[in-house]
Automatic annotation (TrEMBL):
One example of a Gene Ontology biological process annotation: transmembrane transport
The species this protein was found in: Caldilineaceae bacterium SB0664_bin_27
PROSITE patterns found in the cross-reference section: ABC_TM1 (PS50928)
Recorded family membership: Belongs to the binding-protein-dependent transport system permease family.
This protein's name: Carbohydrate ABC transporter permease
Subcellular localization: Cell membrane
Length: 292
């Protein structure tokens, strides 16, 4: 009986690990394929010879993207935009979520109705653009920060988390003489680290990947973020690739390799940041979505 149970347990473990291994392989294969394409010459890519290992190994795609000041200017712009926007967004999200999580706030249901209405019926593009232009934010980083200063879904997640925290903690602090601001700073925020870091990761990823807002609102090439400048660099290199000789075509990176390398370059900061947030990520999502 014991041997049968032990064999069954081992079989179940093998099947679980096998299933997880297959799933992990399926999940990581597109990423490995993109890396392989980024280090391959154009001809093998177009012939369908590149899978998860480079063919005609070459750094040409990365060299063409990185060499020169434009690339590093784009990285600097994206870093400034991401850092500034995330700080503003987290500040606004906390200031909005905490009052709405308190049942004694006058007009709480009315404010929540307005917020949810805006989430369901967002403003159309033309009025949105005209408003940004009227307040003088066109061609400035502020146009990528202030109009997107809060995400309704993230605010509701944080509000639900605040509501789920024990009321006794707040009541004890109030009895000791703490006001709402001290309760928020010294009690609510320290207890909300998992969900706060999760929302920070959401905001960071969204801000780093800004593309359409930058196209709409930023005309100065020196202020555009990484995603837009990478697109412009690929377009500018397209003509050179089309006029390359047959020998260069076999040896050098072309449009497909440039596209793949731009994906890898743009993803590097998020790949570096994610491990530091990983242990809070699932916990923060579950607590913010289920509780309350």
């Amino acid at each position: 009986m014991v041997a049968s149970s032990s064999f069954r347990f081992r079989l179940e473990s093998i099947l679980i690990y096998l299933g997880l291994g297959i799933f992990a392989f399926i999940a990581v294969t597109p990423f490995l394929h993109t890396i392989a394409r980024s280090f391959s010459a154009e001809a093998p890519i177009l012939r369908g010879e590149v899978y998860v290992w480079p063919v005609g190994f070459s750094f040409d795609a990365y060299e063409r993207l990185v060499i020169g000041g434009t690339f590093w200017l784009a990285y600097r712009n994206s870093f400034i935009i991401t850092t500034s926007a995330t700080l503003v967004q987290m500040f606004m999200t906390i200031l909005c979520a905490y009052p709405l999580s308190r049942t004694y706030l006058p007009g709480r249901n009315f404010f929540m109705t307005l917020i949810v209405f805006q989430m369901i019926f967002p403003p159309s593009l033309i009025p949105f653009y005209l408003t940004v232009r009227e307040v003088g934010l066109i061609d400035s980083w502020g146009s990528l920060i202030w109009p997107y200063a809060i995400n309704t879904f993230n605010m509701i997640v944080l509000k639900s988390y605040f509501q789920a925290l024990p009321r006794e903690l707040e009541e004890s602090a109030i009895i000791d003489g703490a006001n709402d601001f001290r309760v928020l700073i010294h009690i609510m925020l320290p207890l909300s680290v998992p969900v706060l870091l999760t929302l920070t990761l959401f905001y960071v990823v969204a801000n780093w990947n800004l593309f359409l807002p930058a196209i709409f609102f930023i005309n100065d090439g020196n202020k555009q973020p990484l995603q837009v400048i990478l697109r412009d660099m690929i377009w500018s290199m397209q003509l050179a690739t089309q006029t390359a000789s047959a020998d260069d075509f076999e040896r050098l990176a072309g449009m497909e390799a440039l596209k793949a390398s731009s994906v890898i370059i743009a993803a590097i900061p998020m790949l570096i940041a994610y491990p530091f947030f990983q242990r809070y990520f699932i916990k923060g999502i579950l607590l913010g979505a289920i509780k309350g």
